[in-house]
Amino acid sequence: MNGYTQTDLNPPAADEVEFSLFGPGFGECVVCHIGSAQWVIVDSCLDPATKEPVALKYLESLGVAVDSAIAAIVSTHWHDDHIKGLSRILEAAPAARYAVTSAFDKADFRAALSQWMDGSSDLEGKGFSELRRIMSLKRHPILAGENKIIFERSAPPKCQVLALSPSDAAVIACISKLADIPKTKFRRRMPEMKGNHASVVLSIEVENRRLLLGGDLQVREDRKFGWLAVVDTHKEFGRSKHHVFKVPHHGSANADDPEIWTHLLELEPHAVLAPFIRGKEKLPTAEDTARIKQSAGRAFITARPTTEKFHHPKPSVEKTMREGTRSLEVIPHRFGHVRLRGRLSEDPQAWRVEHFGDAQQL
Amino acid sequence: MMPILNWEDSYLPQTSGTSTDFLKPPSITEDIDLTLGPESLPSKQTTTITRSFKVRPRNAKNVRQETEEITLLEKWEGYVSEILPDGFRANLQRSASEFKELVAEFEFSELADDDREILAEGMPLVWSITRERRNGVVKRCSVLMLRRQPRQLATKDQDFTKQLNEWIHPNGSESTGC
Question: What is the reported pLDDT for A223?
Fold first, then answer.
């Protein structure tokens, strides 16, 4: 892979936990080493240069036997920026467990979703074309909802991958939102669903090291939904706090609450996030960055949350394009990787942090 | 009755043109006298309907080249990603194989009235930049159009539902509703 030295591509030791977040500015993918040469992949995005799934490229470059070493693959939710290349990962890892949001368990959800499936990738979007490819692989998924164990290893080092969301109430809210999207006379892509009710949040525990992967779950006022439901369940079960936080929803304010930092995370955890640069508002904003830095011990981002200026080789064409628009932005080919590694014998708050490509400390 | 000719504007002879073919008689003209019978018009009134045909001179191809030329300079395809209070945003790519993506923000006024009526998040669109040479005058134009494709049949929805059901519950065990 580009941007790595040979030393960077040494695989982690058997007793070493790794958390890696990849993000090209649109999309994110988490790759975790859970000890004993086993790995978990959460979501998928493509390397902008090669168009290969970043998780596969990275693991292959570490010399990992992808076909046997991946214990679990999880799709947190079905947005385009979390799903690209997932079918190729599933093909490459036939032994891995595969988990999707428990919303798929509901017939109403499936019926509502199928109305947006079209059979042509350009109209239905990458998310649905990936879904159709995955369905054709006949990889029947585990349904990940509140308190569902996705993967467990009892042999040392002990490991558990546990889903903390969505709650049943959140799934119903998601179905309702999906059904409420107005139908139009003409075909169109499914609009992005606001709220991300059905996003899967994961807790990965390897002996004494714990990672909290926030998916894109947001905060809702009603404690039956979103992050506050996760907080309440966590407190109810008396679970331990986490040392590393994959910040949800690209660091947006609507996915953050002080209760998350108080009840789910150790004091001054490591926070890592990927930006989102396709919207009018780029995430994280300057306020988001300040807020995250205040709560986290150290915080890192996989790429700068900015777009690039548009330039056309012919100035006259560029002038016409600018006259026809209010703004023109190019989604850049930036790509970054933040990697945290820590041995099980060491202090679980201590992590060796490296960042590659466009990634940087917040 | 005099034949009625309706020359399409673009085929009218231009002062700068050199061809005299414009002056030749058109190849098609038609007048129709339609006398309706007593059943439909008790007064036996005679009505004349004159049809106008677009008339193409014999060397219309040459005429078009002289009077109007449209060159496509750029074509971007994508979809409406966000509707704003005073405009909308679109994600665009030059071709499906090209990874580079453009995000453009447009005024509503960039769309034709009938496109504005059906504008919705997720609608596919095409943005073309053209160079138009008309009557010797060259200008560049930005043309934005929504792609209108009818919604798929309900039977196709049912096919996808069935595939999803089999994927989630391969043995037929089915959860119902919410």
Answer: 92
pTM of the model: 0.83
The yes-or-no verdict on residue B22 having pLDDT over 90 is no
For B68-146, CATH gives 2.40.50
Least Cα separation, residue B112 to chain A (angstroms): 13
Q: Looking at residue A352, what is its pLDDT?
A: 97
Backbone phi and psi for residue A269, each to the nearest 5 degrees, phi listed first: -75, 170
**Would you call A280 an interface residue with chain B, using a CB distance cutoff of 8 Å?**
yes
CA-nearest residue to A121 within chain B is B96
B153 or A28: whose pLDDT is higher? A28
CA distance B29 to B175: 70
Instruction: Indicate whether B96 pLDDT > 80.
Output: no
Chain B interface includes A35 (CB < 8 A): no
- Average pLDDT score over residue span B104-131: 94
Architecture of the domain made up of A12-181+192-361 = 4-Layer Sandwich (3.60)
Q: How far apart are CA A36 and CA B76, in angstroms?
A: 49
Q: Which residue is closest to B144 within chain A, CA to CA?
A: A324
What tokens were used for B8?
């399409």
Q: Each residue of A233-289: pLDDT tens digit?
A: 999 999 999 999 999 999 999 999 999 999 999 999 999 999 998 888 899 999 999
The three-state (H, E, C) secondary structure of chain A, written as one string = CCCCCCHHHCCCCCCEEEEEEEECCCCCEEEEEECCCCEEEECECECCCCCCEHHHHHHHHCCCCHHHHEEEEECCCCCHHHECCHHHHHHHCCCCEEEEEHHHHCHHHHHHHHCCCCCCHHHHCHHHHHHHHHHHCCCCCEEECCCEEEEEECCCCCEEEEECCCCHHHHHHHHHHHHHCCCCCECCCCCCCCCCCCCCCEEEEECCEEEEECCCCCCCCCCCCHHHHHHHHHHHCCCCCEEEEECHHHHCHHHCCHHHHHHHEEEEEEEEECCECCCCCCECCHHHHHHHHHHCCEEEECCCCCCEECCCCCHHHHHHHHHCCCEEEEECCCCEEEEEEEECCCCCCCCEEEEEECCEEC
- Whether chain A has a CB inside 8 Å of the CB on B23: the answer is no
In this structure, are residues A248 and A214 in contact, taking their beta carbons and an 8 Å threshold?
yes
Arithmetic mean of pLDDT, B67-87? 90
| CATH 2.40.50 segments of chain B | 68-146
